[in-house]
Amino acid sequence: MLLITRRQDESVIINGDIEVKIVDVRGNRVKLGFEFPDGSTVYRKELYLKIQEENKAAAEGGPDQLLSAIQSLGKPSKGEDDPS
Questions:
Q1: What beta strand segments (E) does the chain contain?
Q2: What's the CA dihedral at 6, 10, 16, 17 to 10 degrees?
Q3: How far apart are alpha carbons 19 and 11 in whole angstroms?
Q4: CA nearest 10: which of 22, 19, 18?
Q5: For 14-51, how does the pLDDT look when each residue is reduced to its tens digit (9 = 90+)?
Q6: pLDDT for residue 83
Q7: Which candidate among 17, 41, 61, 69 keeps its CA 20 to 30 Å from the CA of 50?
């Protein structure tokens, strides 16, 4: 793990096209700002891990599990395209 000390309004550049800036520091909380190319994704770690867990479970599941997941999405709400 790389550790870098930065103050408010200072930043780091990752891979030449991702900037992480220290926007605000209050007590034990730090507000970060990210600038990154279009098409990139940024997730909080806990959400990223949940997505990975769901993807793994979906890959291990069979057709019945896929059908169940699709049915759990429900019907489209008004204003959305409804193929029926």
A1: 11-14, 18-26, 29-35
A2: 120
A3: 7
A4: 22
A5: 999 999 999 999 999 999 999 999 999 999 999 999 99
A6: 56
A7: 17
Residue type (1 letter), 30: V
Token pair, residue 83, equals: 């193929």
- Distance from C-alpha of 2 to C-alpha of 18, rounded to nearest angstrom: 16
Residue 45 to residue 2: CA distance in whole angstroms: 17
Phi, psi of 59 (to 5 degrees): -70, -30
Query: Which amino acid, one-letter code, is at 65?
Result: Q
Strand order through the sheet with 18-26 = 11-14, 18-26, 29-35
Token readout for 74 is 């429900």
Report the alpha-carbon distance of residue 18 to residue 12 in Å, rounded. 8
On the question of pLDDT at 71 being above 90, the answer is no
Q: By three-state DSSP, how is residue 11 classified? A: strand
Tell me if 11 sits within 8 A of 21, measured CB to CB: yes
